[in-house]
Amino acid sequence: MAFAEALGNLQLNWPHIFAVLCLVAVVYKSTVLYLRRKDVMRHVEAFPGPPPNWLFGHVLQFKQDGTDLDTIVKWGEQYPYAFPVWFGPVACYLNIHHPDYAKTILASSEPKGDLAYSFLRDWIGEGLLLSKGQKWFRHRRLLTPGFHYDVLKPYVKQMAESAEIMLNKWESYAKTNEAFELFGEVSLMTLDSIMRCAFSCKSNCQTESGTSAYIKAVYELSNLNNLRLNTFPYHSNIIFYLSPHGFRFRKACKVAHDHTEEVIKKRKEALKEVNELGRIQAKRNLDFLDILLFARDEEQQGLSDEDIRAEVETFMFEGHDTTASALSYLFYCLACHPEHQKICRAEVNEVLDGKDYMDWEDLSKIPYTTMCIKESLRLYPAVPGIARKITKPMTFVDGRTAPAGTLVGISVYGIHRNATVWENPHVFDPLRFLPENASKRSPHAFVPFSAGPRNCIGQNFAMNEMKVATAMALKRYELIEDPTLKPKVLPRVVLRSVDGIYIKIKPVNPVG
Ligand code: HEM
Fold it and tell me: How many CA atoms within 13 Å lie on the side-chain side of 26?
């Protein structure tokens, strides 16, 4: 009674009520965060690691200057197998950097982790990369035929045509002694190639002046994705969407979606004219988009329009940005190691025997070049890290257990440079991939395409593209390092470099 009277005497007005509501909200949110933090700390309590700041986690120790992945490798020397990395007060990944730990996770079909992956959802949708459970299983089964070697075979010619356009453009660089930026050039080539191969779309992206709007959007989206992970208030959808960065994210998403929708629209229009799969097949090879449009499961159910858009978006991005990163770093590695480059060139010239193009049959005849590609993927994995959220407790090889709900990050970069697994891990040595050397290692010591049920569906496509482009580049040009311009590795969904990747080139001396 006395309390009610006291309340009445307070004469509360709207600002007071608003202030009280804000206070209640802050207390509620803080309690939720506190409980979440306690829960996350319990997930990783068996795994000591570098001390985090209670609010920012380890984010302040990441300088975004090309040293962050090496910081992770250094921490790994102190904390074997796995250690926690915090991205704010409640977001934490158990970072795995050893093959024996990675094997436990990769052999399972645990779903992709939320956080970093969920940030990608507005962009690439619930395609094969992000979907889970029954949906993923059904789509993976429907799409696997799209990577059968019968489908991949005719792609080799398309890849060679895309590579030739790029190499023709390089003639202007070969005339100067100036270094040029590779990543942008190679991205245009791999985009052109995926458009031709998977979507039978002859794009002019390599010959049009400037960078493609789609590639710029992908670059922006990858950067914003990283910014979001490192800025913990942005883990909240509402805060991010209302921020200027959220606005930029939506704008870039629209550019990416417009690009893919145009591809689907054109094909649907073409299909109206030739409305039968058999007749298309007779006219040209089935491409990935045909497979998407005509995929049917046992109940004759096809994919919805939304599913098709998500898959096209996923393959457009995964199919070009990853290979652009892998090829750019490969060219850089070959430029730094003329001794290996020379052996590759001799091998390629022998196989090509005067031809300008690689054929399907040639792909298996360049073992030394293939070892260099693998060694470059080891040192510079195009996908430097992947993540899972485990739904049941997992016990690792040394007996430690991560409980259900733990977010697990697999540092592909960390595994590939783990000194307990690789001798002289930072040295480029393709002979590590001689069959007799590879057979002595864990199959999970080298996982650029991941492993297990969620491995990369496009790995043969990617390897073929890298072989074709490398062989054709080595036939025409000598790749030369510019020691003043070294790449600084930057994880941005794919592996990029702070200021790009630079090399010099000169025409190969026909007698040399
Ligand atoms: C050098 C090039 C490539 C590398 C290093 C690479 C690497 C990877 C890795 C590590 C994963 C596992 C991701 C995860 O678990 O979150 C993955 C998945 C995937 N990749 Fe690739 N990739 C490459 C090229 C490609 C290409 C060319 C395509 C398509 C044409 C492609 C399509 C996919 C798809 C759709 C998935 C998801 C598969 C699933 O979950 O079932 N990738 N890739």
Answer: 6
Which residue's CA lies nearest to atom 3 of ligand 1?
Answer: 322
| Distance from residue 139's CA to the centre of ligand 1 (Å) | 14
> From the CA of 382, how far away is ligand 1's center (Å)?
10
- pLDDT at 114 (0 to 100): 78
Ligand 1 neighbourhood includes 267 CB (under 6 angstroms): no
Select the more confidently predicted residue: 81 or 302: 81
The model's pTM is 0.94
Distances 137 to 73, 131, 140 between C-alpha atoms, Å? 34, 9, 5
- What span, in angstroms and rounded, lies between the C-alpha atoms of 494 and 237? 23
Query: What is the distance between the alpha carbons of residues 485 and 31, in angstroms, rounded to a whole number?
Result: 49
How many structural domains are present in the chain? 1
pLDDT at position 511 over 70: no
Give 95's DSSP letter: E
Which residue, judged by its Cα, is nearest atom 9 of ligand 1?
449
CA 510 to ligand 1 center in whole angstroms: 38
Distance of CA 242 to the CA centre of its chain: 27
* Domain presence at residue 16: no
From the CB of 315, is ligand 1 less than 6 Å away? yes
pLDDT, one tens digit per residue, over 324-345 is 999 999 999 999 999 999 999 9
491: helix, strand or coil: strand
Do the annotations mark residue 205 as ligand-binding?
no
276: pLDDT strictly greater than 80? no
Give the DSSP H/E element, type plus range, for residue 495.
Answer: strand 494-497
Check residue 512 and give its pLDDT: 46
CATH code of the domain in which 357 resides: 1.10.630.10
Q: Does residue 386 line the site of ligand 1, with CB under 6 A?
A: yes
Q: Tell whether 512 is covered by a domain.
A: no
Residue 326 lies in a domain: yes
Pairing of strands 489-492, 494-497: antiparallel
Rounded CA separation 199/322 (Å): 18
With respect to residue 271, please indicate whether it lies within any of the assigned structural domains.
Answer: yes
Give the pLDDT confidence of 196-242 residue by residue, as tens digits: 999 988 888 998 877 789 999 999 999 999 999 999 999 999 999 99
Which atom in ligand 1 lies closest to the alpha carbon of residue 127? 35
Cβ contact 351:365 at 8 Å: yes
Interval 122-150: pLDDT, tens: 999 999 999 999 999 999 999 998 898 88
The pLDDT of residue 20: 85
Domain extent for 498: 44-507
Q: Is 146 in the pocket of ligand 1 (CB under 6 A)?
A: no
Residues 438 and 432 sit within 8 Å (Cβ to Cβ): yes
Percentage of residues in the chain having pLDDT higher than 70 = 95
Measured CA to CA, the distance from residue 396 to residue 402 in angstroms comes to 8
